[in-house]
Amino acid sequence: MPIFEYVCRECNHRFELLIQGSVEAACPQCNTSKIDKQFSAFGVGATGGWPVTSSGGSCGSCGDPRGPGACSMN
């Protein structure tokens, strides 16, 4: 379930929503569906790679020993 960032065209409220299936998003402040999805940056390091953890261990999601994000990379 992805989290999306939105901005409302009616009241200019910025918010995030966890979207499930075909649920239509609406502004939580004024309840309109006139919203625009925003580009969302996620946890990447300054060099464009995955952030390095202090432990340097395996991926927390799948246990891949190559580190965070390795299982989804080609």
Structure description:
There is one protein chain. With 74 residues, the protein is mostly beta strands. The protein has a domain of 40 residues: Rubrerythrin, domain 2, CATH 2.20.28. 0% of the residues lie in helices and 20% in strands. It has no helices and three strands. A three-stranded antiparallel β-sheet has the order 2-1-3, with no helix packed on it.
SSE map:
Blueprint: E1 3-8, E2 14-18, E3 35-38
**Distance from first to last alpha carbon:** 22 Å
For the biggest β-sheet, the strand order reads 2-1-3
CATH topology of the domain at 1-40: Rubrerythrin, domain 2
Question: What's the main sheet like?
Answer: 3 strands, antiparallel
Q: Report the portion of residues in β strands.
A: 15-25%
Count of helices? 0
CATH architectural name of the domain at 1-40: Single Sheet
Amount of helix: under 10%
Tell me, briefly, the overall form. elongated
Ranges where pLDDT stays below 50 over 5 or more residues in a row are none
Topology as a string of helices (H) and strands (E): EEE
Structural class: mainly beta
Strand elements, count: 3
Please tell me the overall pLDDT.
73
Q: What's the CATH class label of the domain at 1-40?
A: Mainly Beta
